[in-house]
Design goal:
- The protein is α+β, with helices and mostly antiparallel strands.
- The chain contains 4 helices and 8 strands.
- The strands form 2 sheets. The chain has a 4-stranded antiparallel sheet with strand order 2-1-7-8, covered by helices on one side. A 4-stranded antiparallel sheet has the order 5-4-3-6, sandwiched between helices.
- The chain is globular, with a radius of gyration of 16 Å.
């Protein structure tokens, strides 16, 4: 079975700021570019063609949209101690896409957890490290703006690396 995920890879003019914090606090920073996850990693025998058809049918009426990210939040939990860069504009569009993608062919992979659009800046081993990362990143007052016009499907390689297998361009 192949492990895949569906994401937005936003292009910000000040991406180096995000990469600075990710390089410090995100163990995946060398494996995957900064992203907003729409469908979390899932293992399935569904073909890439079937998956692309699902995106075609679910995203046909979704137009390109603007996003703004600013400020950080901390999210400790059983699966990790996450530091998020918050989405402050475009959350409704991202949630709509998330909900549409978790229907039909991918419905079985939705775990029911509430979805909070974000870009992960870090995942620390302890709450104390998370608090320190949060204090550090909270000093950043940058605003990150981009237009979302591509939704990417990624395969997760043997070493955890990101391999883009398709890109869906949102219709103008």
């Amino acid at each position: 079975m192949i492990t895949r995920t569906i994401m937005i890879f936003p292009e910000f003019h000040n991406m180096e700021v995000i990469n600075f914090y990710r390089n410090k606090y995100d163990p995946l920073s060398d494996l995957v570019k900064p992203h907003i996850t729409l469908v979390f990693p899932f293992q399935s025998g569904i073909s890439n063609d079937e998956l692309n058809s699902h995106l075609d049918s679910q995203l046909i009426n979704i137009k390109p949209f603007e996003i703004t990210l600013q400020g950080v939040s901390r999210h400790p939990g059983e699966s990790g101690n996450y530091l998020f860069l918050n989405v402050v504009k475009g959350t409704e569009s991202i949630r709509l896409i998330h909900d549409k993608l978790y229907s039909g062919a991918l419905k079985e992979f939705f775990n029911g957890d509430p979805y909070c659009p974000h870009l992960t800046l870090g995942n620390t081993a302890s709450i104390k490290e998370l608090e320190n990362a949060y204090l550090d990143a909270s000093a950043c007052s940058e605003t990150f703006k981009a237009t979302v016009n591509i939704i990417s499907t990624e395969m997760i390689g043997r070493s955890g690396e990101s391999i883009i297998i398709s890109e869906y361009k949102l219709p103008d």
